[in-house]
Amino acid sequence: MVRFAEKIVKMIDIPGTFDDRYIYAIESAPASAIEDDPDVLFPCCGLNASPRVHPSNSAWVLALIAGGGCNAFEATVKFTYCGETRYYPGGTTKVYSQKADVLYVFDTLSWTINSDIILDPPICTLAPAPPVFSYTPKPSNATVPGCP
Amino acid sequence: MTQFWPSRIRDRKTQLGTHIALAMLVFPAIGLRARESNQETARPEDRGARAPQSREPWRQDLDRAKRLVGEKPTEMLVEWEFGDLSEVLRELLWPFSNWIFHDSVCPHSSRYPVQIRDDVALRVRLFAAGENSDCDIAEYQWLANGRRLRVVSSRNAVRVDFDLDQVVECAWSHGPACVQATRKWVERTLKLEGEYRGTGDSVIKYRVELPWPEKLDDGVWFSSAPDRDIYRLPGMPRWYERVDAYVENGVLSILIYKKIGQLMGYQDGSKWFPDDFRAKVLQRARELGKLPPEDK
Question: Quick check: A53 contacting B, CB < 8 Å?
Answer without folding.
Answer: no
